[in-house]
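Tokens as discussed.
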């Protein structure tokens, strides 16, 4: 009887182990499906906050054409300077927690093989340049 009881204990333990393995695999599968959808929006929001920290008046920031791809967020930002006037639309790029704004944004975008060169961003920048030259 002692041998049979020992075998029952072992199979019960094996059953528990299999249960936990299946539960873990289910969790990994659900996380793999849901995580990209969840982190896309929150990563973009976090990167917008990084840009705001670099501005003189973060509360005045107006963002447009914001997009995130491959961990890089880019778009356009307009904010007020110390005199209270809007500076004009500038390109921004956030990569690995560092914001590049204005000229730095253009340089960074070029180094990243034009990751931010969408038609909408190009059109908005051209319109801003046209308006500022008037």
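Sequence:
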């Amino acid at each position: 009887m002692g041998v049979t009881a020992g075998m029952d204990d072992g199979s019960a333990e094996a059953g528990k182990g299999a249960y936990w393995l299946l539960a873990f695999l289910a969790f990994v599968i659900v996380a793999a499906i849901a995580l990209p959808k969840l982190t896309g929006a929150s990563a973009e929001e976090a990167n917008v906050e990084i840009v705001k920290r670099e501005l003189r008046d973060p509360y005045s920031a107006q963002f447009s054409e914001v997009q995130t791809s491959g961990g890089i967020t880019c778009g356009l930002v307009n904010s007020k300077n110390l005199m209270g006037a809007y500076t004009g639309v500038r390109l921004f790029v956030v990569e690995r927690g560092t914001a590049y704004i204005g000229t730095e944004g253009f340089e960074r975008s070029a180094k990243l093989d034009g990751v931010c060169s969408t038609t909408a961003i190009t059109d908005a920048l051209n319109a801003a340049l046209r308006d500022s030259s008037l």
